[in-house]
Amino acid sequence: SVKKMLPTMSKDSEIKDGENKNLIKIVERPTFILKTREGENRAVSPSQRNGHKKDADMSSAAPSKIQESIRMLSICPEMSTCIKFMDENMQLCENSIDFLYDQQDFLVVGCLGAQGVGKSTIMSLLTSHYSSNIFQVQDLSHYENSTNCTTGIDFFITKNRVIYLDTQPILSGFVIDSAASFDQKKGASDFMNSDSNLELQSLQFAAFLFSVCHVIIFVQDWFIDPNLVRFLQTAEMLKPSSTTVIDQDYVEYYPHVIFLHNKAELQDFMPATIDEMKDFYNKVFSSSRLQTHSGIDMNHCSTESGLNLFFIPSRNRQEDMIFCENEKSLIDKLRTKIYGVPRNSITPSVLTEKNWYHYVSKVIEVIKKSHLSSEYGRLMP
Q: What does UniProt give as the signal peptide span (predicted)?
């Protein structure tokens, strides 16, 4: 066999090669200086160009939107008195939309109560820092003629975008008298259903307020009429749904309800009496979905879970004013707590003032055509 001859290297040659390696001169790499292109017309990718433009548009749109809102509110016509929002037949008046704008920061406060309890007086006191007697209050002529001071719903909106709705009395005898006289002129002989029609009409007004208001002030002048409690529970049942779309994440809307006792006497401010009232309301509305525990009460430092119970002292008992807060401080406290209440969305989508007005018209139509209301009216005794 022939063996391959491997080349052999001497140690001297290895040393020489090693020396040559050490003698290799390291040459530095040349340095290239890159100069950016001058001018504004350098090439930019479309995505970058659109991105910069979008950011610039967003940054410029934010202040312009705020300025537009400020300008819009600055030209808002100021109201000096209330106007008619809806008549006694639940026909919506169109002139109120002229005072509404496309902005979302607003609060709707409604008022419910029987005849002569002081609903319009409370609403006028809440708006007294804008003008006096914005809502007409009942005087001697109304008692003599047995007429209501408020028919339908009166409307007033403040500079702070708080909408006040003063409603005609619920379960008022004047409605029966006017309806009976109207039927008598027509020659009708059956007045058996007047009471039922009166209650159903009042329930429709209450269900309407439950659907369109953030806060409802339920005014009473004594403690307590169980028929009014049953009335509130029935109105809650007849309240139409705020959406026609089945949404698993949406929680049905219910307003904040304040139990306001007007013309309160000295014993009504006693802790034992207040505890008795709280215990009654807590038991009666334990299963209600109305927001009755929002902290709108007489305490200076309220908790969110406090019962919405408030007292306004009688104006005729001046000696009682010595032992409790005066009317002005109580109204200021009530107004402050109403303004600070959480404003839950009335519908699944956030409404502006004008959208709220259009939603109101839809609610009226739904209530008028409600099958549940008609069935309840048919089954009433």
A: none
Torsion-angle region of 187 (φ positive above 0: left; ψ -120 to 50: alpha; else: beta): left
Q: Are strands 153-157 and 256-264 parallel, antiparallel or unpaired?
A: unpaired
State whether residue 349 is helix, strand or coil.
coil
Two structure tokens written together for 228: 């009014």
**What pLDDT was estimated at residue 63?**
56
Measured between alpha carbons, how far is residue 345 from residues 12, 107, 338 in Å? 96, 11, 16
CATH 3.40.50.1860 fits 83-180+189-243+250-379, yes or no: no
- The tokens of 45 are what? 């990718």
Give which of 221, 165, 237, 175 is closest to 202, Cα–Cα: 175
pLDDT in tens, 142-191: 555 666 678 889 999 999 999 999 999 998 877 666 655 545 444 443 43
The CA-based dihedral angle spanning residues 173, 368, 97, 109, taken in that order and rounded to the nearest 10 degrees: 60
pTM of the model: 0.76
Q: In whole angstroms, give the CA distance from residue 56 to residue 58.
A: 5
Task: Tell me 305's DSSP state.
Answer: T
pLDDT in tens, 83-110: 999 998 899 998 889 999 999 999 999 9
